[in-house]
Backbone:
């Protein structure tokens, strides 16, 4: 069975554009009646293969998304005929009715939000809700998801298959949950959206366009959830967070493609329209009376955004925000960011002491920003040999060539003594 990433990996040109923009929408629509995610993915895989074969000769259809949907439906029908069961025959009739009544459907209903909440159903293993959403909605392959969640790719692939089978066999409905059940499932939905955004936001400029577009897709999904659930402050908080980060995208690289750290970015290059929207959304969320992780993270970005007015961030406020985030999440990543803030607001020595406090956390062993922060603080404390070793570790862990060059430049500035 082909997962989302494998389906999309070989697609180029117009098919790639349709794939990036419509993959999750087509999968959600195809699976809405049968609840067979794996079957929907397989059918769509064959449809994309047909597009690669037919379009270069016959030309791109006027409505490529509808063309792909029609071909995928026919593949589903073929699979159901081969299945030969009564249940398959019933679904066969439903799909055949759709096919006959709407051969050239132009307006495909968007079932993605319902599919996201189906993937976050309590019957699904809690560890797999986020990964399942990433694959079915945004087409991540198992290897990418595995690296995000620190699980071997083969293990992740097996778990994804089991999760999809659970949706089919348990007859999990594609619908929004009742209000009382919303919070539990919403957490998994927001986690998956943010993971997708992060994957697209941090990607090098030279990455394939489908991956660069993930941030845009995630913001679209974030807007959808926020519109559908306007009373959920964390949905608003996540949207505000993503907009704040997206506003700085253009300032993170020079025209030559070199990486620019946040403290060195030109605030006039930030997108003020996105920042203003983020601020309004965050204010609305604060009136809901329930503070959570994403609102706190958005507030951190808001504190940095004050630089657009020619003012420096309030380091005391930032430290307090990270204190609350740390208490809420227990994340060592939060602890690293808090240490950097302490170094800016108090002293480098105190910041390094705060970083030393989480030095033994194994979750940071291969976390590049930890080693980069450690190298910077060690350097500023005059401990150049230790800083050199930390920079070497950070460079070894980094895959983005621009960030590797940035770290190497910082390392070359050290006056290492024996």
Residues:
């Amino acid at each position: 069975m082909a997962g989302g990433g494998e389906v999309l990996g070989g697609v180029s040109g117009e098919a790639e554009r349709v794939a990036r923009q419509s993959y999750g929408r087509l999968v959600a629509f195809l699976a809405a009646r049968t609840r067979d995610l794996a079957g929907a993915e397989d059918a769509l895989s064959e449809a994309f293969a047909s597009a690669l074969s037919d379009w270069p000769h016959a030309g791109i259809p006027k409505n490529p998304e509808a063309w792909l949907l029609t071909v995928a439906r026919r593949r589903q029908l073929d699979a159901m005929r081969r299945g030969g069961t009564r249940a398959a025959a019933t679904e066969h009739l439903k799909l055949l009715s759709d096919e006959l009544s709407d051969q050239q459907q132009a307006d495909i209903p968007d079932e993605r939000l319902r599919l996201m909440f189906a993937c976050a159903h309590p019957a699904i293993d809690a560890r797999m809700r986020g990964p399942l959403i990433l694959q079915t909605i945004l087409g991540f392959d198992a290897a990418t998801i595995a690296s995000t969640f620190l699980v071997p790719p083969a293990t992740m692939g097996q778990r994804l298959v089991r999760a999809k089978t659970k949706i089919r066999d348990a007859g999990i409905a594609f619908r929004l949950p009742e209000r009382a059940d919303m919070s539990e499932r919403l957490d998994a939905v927001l986690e998956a959206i943010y993971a997708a955004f992060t994957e697209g936001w941090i990607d090098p400029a030279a990455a394939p366009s489908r991956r660069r577009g993930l941030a845009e897709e995630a913001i679209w999904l974030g807007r959808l959830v926020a519109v559908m659930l306007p009373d959920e402050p964390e949905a608003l908080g996540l949207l505000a967070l993503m907009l704040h980060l997206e506003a700085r995208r253009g300032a993170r690289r020079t025209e030559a493609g070199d990486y620019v750290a946040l403290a060195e970015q030109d605030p006039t290059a930030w997108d003020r329209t996105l920042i203003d929207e983020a601020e309004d959304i965050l204010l609305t969320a604060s009136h809901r009376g329930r503070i959570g992780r994403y609102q706190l993270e958005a507030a951190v970005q808001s504190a940095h955004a004050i630089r657009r007015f020619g003012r420096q961030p309030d380091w005391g406020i930032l430290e307090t925000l990270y204190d609350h985030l740390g208490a809420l999440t227990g994340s060592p990543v939060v602890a690293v960011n808090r240490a950097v803030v302490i170094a800016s607001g108090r002293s480098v020595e105190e910041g390094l002491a705060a970083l030393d406090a989480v030095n033994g956390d194994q979750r940071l062993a291969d976390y590049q920003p930890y080693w980069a922060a450690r190298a910077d603080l060690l350097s500023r404390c005059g401990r150049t040999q230790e800083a050199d070793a930390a920079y070497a570790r950070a460079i070894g862990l980094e895959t983005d060539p621009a960030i590797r060059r940035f770290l190497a430049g910082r390392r070359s500035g050290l006056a290492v003594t024996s």
Remarks:
- DSSP finds 21 helices and no strands in the chain.
